[in-house]
Specification:
Layout lengths: L24 H19 L4 H21 L4 H17 L2 H21 L3 H16 L10 H14 L4 H13 L3 H12 L8 H18 L1
Length: about 210
C-alpha cells in the first residue's frame, strides 16, 4: 500500500477531549476553546490561505495554553493536534519538520498520561505514525501505529474518533472488510451536541471512508 503523508482532520483529533473530572473548570474550558477552534477551522472555514492564517493564530493560542498549565497532558495534546494540522497544510519543505514537532509534543503528553482524553493522546500519536512515511523519508512506523490505535480503542471502544482512525488505518493497510466494521461502529457513537462542527464533520469523513471501503 502506497504510503500517504496527509494528516487532515487528525488527529484530530481529530478527536474530542474528555478532560478528567479532577481537572479545573478553567483548564477544561480553555482546552475546549482550542478544540472548538480546530473544528471550526477544519470543517467550517473555507480557503487554504484563510485556514492557514487561522491555524497560525490557533497554534499560538495552543502554545500559550501549554504554558498556562505546565505538566498537563490535555493542553499538550491539543497543541500537538494543531501543529499536526499545520503540517497537513504546509508545503513539502515544511511538512516533515512540523510533523516531527507534533510527534514530540504528543510524546510528552503520552509520557505524562497515556490514558488522557479517553485515549486521545495515544490515538493522535498513532495517527502520526501511520500518516507519515517511514524511513528513510520520515519516522512513520505501522507497528507503533497499530499498537497505539488499539490502545486508544481499549480506552474508548465505542468512540467516534477511536473507531474512525482505526478504520482509516486498516483501510490504509488494505483490509477493507475490517475497516468497514470499525467505520460502521464509529457511526453508531452517540452524537455530541456540545461540539456540533466536529460531530457533523467527522461523520461526513466516516461516510467518505465507507464509500472507499465498499
Amino acid at each position: 500500500m502506497k504510503q500517504r503523508f496527509t494528516l487532515a482532520a487528525t488527529i484530530a483529533a481529530v478527536l474530542m477531549v474528555a478532560t478528567p473530572v479532577a481537572a479545573s473548570a478553567t483548564m477544561s474550558d480553555d482546552v475546549k476553546a482550542i478544540n472548538d477552534g480546530w473544528a471550526h477551522i477544519t470543517y467550517e472555514v473555507h480557503g487554504s490561505s484563510t485556514q492557514t492564517k487561522a491555524l497560525d493564530k490557533l497554534a499560538k493560542d495552543a502554545a500559550a495554553l501549554v504554558a498556562r498549565y505546565p505538566g498537563k497532558a490535555e493542553p499538550l495534546l491539543w497543541q500537538g493536534i494543531v501543529v499536526s494540522e499545520q503540517a497537513n497544510r504546509a508545503n513539502i519543505f515544511h511538512k516533515l519538520g512540523l510533523a516531527t514537532r507534533a510527534r514530540d509534543i504528543l510524546a510528552k503528553a503520552y509520557a505524562i498520561d497515556r490514558s488522557a482524553a479517553d485515549g486521545g493522546v495515544a490515538m493522535s500519536l498513532g495517527v502520526l505514525y501511520y500518516k507519515v512515511p517511514g524511513s528513510p523519508i520520515g519516522f512513520g512506523d505501522k507497528d507503533k501505529a497499530r499498537r497505539l490505535l488499539k490502545e486508544a480503542l481499549a480506552l474508548d471502544p465505542n468512540g467516534l474518533d477511536a473507531n474512525y482512525f482505526y478504520g482509516d488505518f486498516l483501510l490504509d493497510q488494505g483490509d477493507k472488510a475490517a475497516a468497514r466494521s470499525y467505520l460502521q461502529k464509529a457511526l453508531k457513537a452517540p452524537h455530541d451536541p456540545s461540539r456540533p462542527a466536529w460531530d457533523a464533520g467527522r461523520r461526513r469523513e466516516v461516510q467518505q471512508l465507507l464509500a472507499k471501503a465498499a
